[in-house]
Structure formats: C-alpha cells, structure tokens
C-alpha cells in the first residue's frame, strides 16, 4: 500500500500551528508517514494532478477569468528554492508559469518603494507565479543588517499585510513557503558547492558571512510568521533537509491552492453545433 | 537496438534543403528511421541531454556570459506550437526558459514598429527563449490580408534579416521552426476541439476563416523560407502531423544549437581553497 499524508499538508505545515522556528526540526516530515521512495513515487502521481489543475487555471485565464496563484518561496541559502522551481515548477506546462527571482535590488529598484518590483512581477491571469525570494527580503537581510532604519522596516509588516490582502481580493491565491534547512545541512551543501566544479557557479562567498547571522535570521523569520501569517495568505514552514519531502510538500500545497478555486473547463463562447457545421462545410 | 537519426536533424529539416513547402509531406519523419515508440523513448533520453545543456547555459549566464538561445515557433493553427512549449520546454528547468506568446498586436504595440514588442521579449543572458509566434506574424496574416500595404510588408523581410543578424552578433543563437500540419490533419484537430468540452478554450472560430486562405499562407511561408533562411538564423521545417516526431525534432535542434556554444562550467570567481578553509572555520 502506498504511503500518503496522515494530516493534510496545509494543516501539518502551517506556520502558526508550529512552535517557534528556532526549535523546528528540518529533518522531519510533518503529516507524511512515508519514506523517500514512497514520497518520490507520490510526487510523480501528484505532479500529474498538479499539471491537470494548472491547465484548468490556464484555460480559464485565457477565457476571461482573472484569477492566478502566487507561490512565494523563502529560505536560507542552500535551502533548495531553486530545486523547488525546477522540480515542482517542472511538473507543469512552463507556459503556465511566471517565474521571478529577486536578488539584491538594482539602483532603479531602490528609487522606488520596496513593493514596486514585486507588483511588476505579479503573475498574469491564469498563471502560477513563483517568486524565488520576494518582498520578504525587505524584512530579512534588510532587518538583520538594518539596511534601512528600524523605524522603516518595522512598518513593512503592516504594509505587506495590506498589499497581500489587496492581491487576494483582486483574485490571486497567495501561498508562502519557507524552506528550512539546519545549520549543519547548510554547511554540507556549501561544502558540496566548493567540492564540485559544476556547482561553483552556485557558490557565493557572502553565504558564509550570512551564516554568522543565523540566529538573527531565525528571529526575522519568526517575526514574519508572527506578523504576516493569515488565512488569506498563509505561511507554511517546510522542512528542507530532505529534498524529496520539501518538493512533495510544496506540490501538495499548490494542489490545495488550485483545488480551492473550484475550476471547471470554460464554457464555449461560440455556438458549438454551428461551428461543427461550418467546419464540415469548410474545404 | 534503438533507432535514431540517420541524417542530423539540422540537415534533414533545414528549410532550404527541402523542396517547395506546398509539396512538403507533414506525415514524414525526415532523417529519423524509428516509429512512435522509439521516438518517444529517444525523446526522454535526449531530454536529459537538453536539460544538462540548459543548466550549463544558465550557469554561464549567471556568471557573466551574455549568450542566449532563441527558438522561434511558427505554424498554422493546431500545428502544435503550444505542445512544443509544453513537451520540449517542459524537459528543462523552467527557470531557464523565457517564454513569450505573440497574439494580435495590442493598440499600444501598434503604435510602435513591428519589432518593438519582439525586442522587449528577447531572452536574458543564459536563457532559452521560446517565441510562440513571433515577428514572422508580420509577414504572415499581415501579408495574406494586406493588413499593411504591400509596399510596407515587402520591406519587412530585409528588416527581419537585419534584426536577426544583430541579434546573433550580440550573442543570441537563433533557430526558427515552422511546424507543418496537413489541411486534413488540421480539420481533424479542429473537430476534436469542438467535440471535447475540455478543448473548447483552444477553439477559435477565426481558425476556420484562416483555413480558407491555406494556399496564401503556404505562399507566405515560402517567401519567408526563400528570404530569411540564413546559416546564422536558420529555418527548419518540421512535419507535425505526428506530434511525437515534431517534439523529438525540435528537442534535437535545440541540443544542436546549445552544443554549438561549446559551454563549460564557469570557473570559480573566488579562491576555492580559501573558501573551504573559511567554511570549515565557520560555526
């Protein structure tokens, strides 16, 4: 018998249901009772369900429905955000995705409020948007290093809540996933990047500097969960030491979000029978 | 024994090596001696090769290399352009793709020259761009229906050649694929869209009207091949009655384009040994 979720991912991984992030176990697989093999097998199966739902969303988007889904990915360096884009995003038609990575803001971006570049990258109707990092960077490194005065970053939580509730009101389903690796696992992954010439390009010396601020980052994440985890735009905390689990979990959360839209195939905006006749009569 | 290409796809499918498009056989599988099963099997295998090359391109793009690849897809309605995006694009990391579909120009686009919207959508460094329709629409429906005066569309072939040679000179490898279905096969595919409620959204009554101009479109495609098929930005003609073959062929052409870049993993822009020491010393 195949293993599966004993508790729905959307309950088992919800940020506010968990204890403090500092005592979270990145090796765990909350809600799932299977091992790597059964998880990998289930991902392939659920991937097909995700692809079907994505096509429904896309079809509706092409037919005038303005809804979209936005998956926000956050997490420490090496937590596997890129792997989620590749291995979960890769399960669906790439045409239906709108992927955007947010790095250090450009000079142009810095001349605008912090949500400017975010708003520009929101997914069009019918798409699944994936943000690899996001507006939450503006309360993560920005907070840890006080890149703007505390009085400014402190206000951002409320601004983010306001922004996200507007987003949801205008038809975007928002789910936010924080991938959590342990400090040891991060060290292992950084070491691998330094050991393999085909991984050098992923290595950034700055990652070691950021590692020194590990606890400050945990505190900044805790503040995010405390202040911005709402039912309308929930935060999920994804243990990410086991990549197979984090991929399975995010896939499941996306399925849950898409299922919530209760989509059906768009009705024909033409007369089917008369089109059939026209086609039969055509050369 | 597995079947494979008896002639490289880049030779067997090159537009200028073929006779007139009007006598082209959309059922054929030029250069490939296998059937559907062996073609499907080969696609899975070659898909992994494509994914590896795409990762190399992406890695180089992230490390300062400005090169990119652009796949231009054209073809009659129902020829399977979307299927190529899904099934060939879907073989690689979606993060490395830059997909853009071009529909009827918007009022804003019409206020600019016809290449304006094209230039805005060119792939960033390290990406594989896929254009689902392209600037060639401006010498296809535009020519067939004289949406601009003949004196204007006639000039566009030279403008396109100039544009593409600039593009190539600035580091974008361009390959152009025209998917060709037979008129009978199109009728079958349109009928299927009218028979299946899950396909209504793909049906457009205008497709029947365009079908009445079939020969004019063939003539317009012939002009494109005659005037814009250059070694620097070649046209390939892909028989598309058999979807498995068109997907296999485009995958192979992409592999060929990427291999031509002779990419290697980017060198480290940091001192590997001293970073190893820093990491070991870090907490």
Look at the structure and give the mean pLDDT of chain A. Answer: 97
How does the major sheet of chain A shape up? 5 strands, parallel
Q: Quaternary arrangement of the chains shown? A: homodimer
CATH class assignment of chain A: Alpha Beta
Q: Within the largest sheet of chain A, what's the order of strands?
A: 2-3-1-4-5
Q: What is the H level of CATH, i.e. the homologous superfamily of chain A?
A: P-loop containing nucleotide triphosphate hydrolases
CATH architecture of chain A: 3-Layer(aba) Sandwich
Strand content of chain A: 5-15%
Number of helices of chain A: 12
Based on Cα principal axes, name the global outline of chain A: globular
Q: What name is given to the CATH topology of chain A?
A: Rossmann fold
Could you tell me the radius of gyration of chain A in angstroms?
21 Å
Strand segment count of chain A: 5
Indicate the percent of residues in helices of chain A.
Answer: 40-55%
Key words describing this protein structure:
homodimer; 283 residues; alpha/beta; Rossmann fold; 5-stranded parallel β-sheet; 12 helices; 5 strands; 47% helix; Polyphosphate_phosphotransfera (chains A, B)
Summarize the SSE layout with pairings:
The structure is a homodimer of 283-residue chains.
Chain A lengths: L8 H4 L23 H27 L5 E8 L5 H7 L9 E5 L5 H4 L5 H5 L7 E5 L8 H4 L5 H20 L2 E9 L2 H13 L10 H6 L2 H15 L6 E5 L3 H17 L12 H10 L2
Parallel strand pairs in A: 1-3, 1-4, 2-3, 4-5
């Amino acid at each position: 018998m195949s293993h599966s979720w004993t508790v729905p991912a959307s309950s088992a991984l919800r940020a506010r249901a968990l204890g403090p992030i500092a005592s979270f176990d990145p090796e765990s697989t909350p809600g799932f009772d299977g091992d790597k093999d059964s998880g990998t097998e289930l991902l392939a199966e659920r991937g097909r369900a995700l692809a079907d739902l994505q096509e429904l969303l896309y079809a509706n988007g092409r037919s005038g429905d303005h809804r979209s889904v936005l998956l926000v990915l956050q997490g420490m360096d090496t937590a596997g955000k890129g792997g989620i884009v590749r291995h979960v995003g890769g399960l669906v038609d790439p045409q239906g995705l709108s992927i955007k990575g947010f790095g250090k803001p450009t000079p142009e971006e810095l001349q605008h409020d912090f949500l400017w570049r975010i708003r520009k990258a929101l997914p069009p109707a019918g798409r699944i948007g994936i943000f690899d990092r996001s507006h939450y960077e503006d309360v993560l490194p920005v907070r840890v290093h006080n890149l703007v005065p505390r009085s400014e970053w402190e206000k951002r939580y409320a601004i983010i809540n306001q922004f996200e509730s507007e987003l949801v009101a205008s038809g975007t389903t928002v789910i936010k996933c924080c991938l959590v690796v342990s400090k040891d696992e991060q060290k292992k992954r950084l070491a691998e990047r330094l050991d393999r010439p085909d991984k050098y390009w992923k290595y950034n010396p700055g990652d070691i500097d950021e590692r020194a601020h590990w606890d400050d980052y945990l505190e900044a994440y805790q503040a995010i969960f405390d202040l911005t985890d709402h039912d309308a735009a929930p935060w999920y905390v994804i243990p990410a030491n086991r990549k197979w689990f984090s991929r399975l979990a995010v896939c499941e959360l996306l399925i849950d979000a898409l299922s919530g839209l209760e989509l059906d195939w768009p009705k024909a905006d033409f007369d089917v029978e008369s089109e059939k006749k026209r086609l039969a009569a055509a050369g």
